[in-house]
Each structure stands twice: as structure tokens, then as C-alpha cells.
């Protein structure tokens, strides 16, 4: 699949992926990409976030590819079973946060936990770091198996965000292109 053949929905996490974030850069670079907007980026409410994603999938006129980061990954996983059947052709999931940890950020709606463990109804690729402060690699690996997602070991890459040196992230864009070719 080519990017021009799909509606690419960018699904940011907490705070909405600022101007230096790779998601924002990809949104600007890919002509068919658009952001799933949320009412409140700093106080996420699961029901609102999943409803916004579902509305964007429903409004899409081409096959949908999801590109989620951090809490956006949790949003995708929670929404997956209720999304328009057959609309989503694949999902790139990056930097899963373990919302089941006791030390999760207090501004995150507790309804984000637990994360669903059902297999995702579309092909997916989870990219996880070995030193992500929000999720251990072992937990990410466990969830990838439950979801039927292919897992990519990003090494010691932090949370795969600008704070850990991933602004432009050309390697991620190449990985995304490879994922699309297999769809």
C-alpha cells in the first residue's frame, strides 16, 4: 500500500505531540495524513479519546492506517474492536505506555487501565524501547503477543519522542514505509 492510497490518521498521546515531534513532522510531510484531534490533550478521558478516533475512522473515504504514539497507542487498542469493520488496514504503534502501573501519571483517566489483550482486528507493528520510562520492554513484548502485533526492538531509545532525540525520526518513517509495503 502507498501512503497516497490511504487516510493516515495520526493518533498522538498526552499533550498532543508538539511541533518537534516526529508525528507532527510526518503529518506535515504525508499528504493524506491528518491528526485525530482531542478536546483536551492534557486531561485525557478514554471515552472521549476513543470516540474521536472512531469518528475520524468513520469519516475516512479510503483505507485507514493508524500511526499512534504513547497514550495514542492505548487509545487505538481500546477503540479497535468498535471501529468501523474493515476500515483500518493497519496500525503503527510506538512507545506504548503501561497504563496499568501504579505510578502512571495522575492526569490520565483511570479507565485507560486495564489495556485490552484481545488480538487486534488489523495488522499492527509495535515499536518499543528497552529503556522507555513509561513501559518496560517485557511488558511491551507481552502486549504485542496478545495483540498479534509484530514487535520491533528499538534498543535504548527512551520514549521515542523529541526528549529522547526523536524529532524527525527518518528511521521510523522508513520502518513505516516497509510496514505499508506488506499490507
Polypeptide structure, described:
30% of the residues lie in helices and 16% in strands. By secondary structure, the chain is α/β, with parallel strands linked by helices. The protein has a six-stranded parallel sheet, sandwiched between helices. Helix 2 crosses helix 3. The longest helix is centred in the N-terminal third of the chain and has 14 residues, at 46-59.
Question: What attributes characterize this protein structure?
Answer:
183 residues; alpha/beta; Rossmann fold; 5 helices; 6 strands; globular
What is this structure, in a nutshell?
This protein is α/β, with parallel strands linked by helices and 183 residues long. It is 30% helix and 16% strand.
Write the layout of secondary structure elements.
Blueprint: E1 7-11, H1 22-29, E2 33-35, H2 46-59, E3 64-69, H3 71-79, E4 88-94, E5 124-128, H4 137-147, E6 150-153, H5 170-181
Helix pairs in contact: 2-3
Number of domains: 1
User: What's the CATH topology label?
Assistant: Rossmann fold
Number of helical stretches of at least 4 residues: 5
What share of the residues lie within helices? 25-40%
Instruction: Extract low-pLDDT stretches.
Output: none
The CA-CA distance between the termini, in Å, is 6 Å
Strand content: 15-25%
Let me know the CATH homologous superfamily. Alpha/Beta hydrolase fold, catalytic domain
Number of strands: 6
For the sheet with most strands, the description reads:
6 strands, parallel
CATH architecture designation: 3-Layer(aba) Sandwich
- What is the average of the pLDDT values? 96
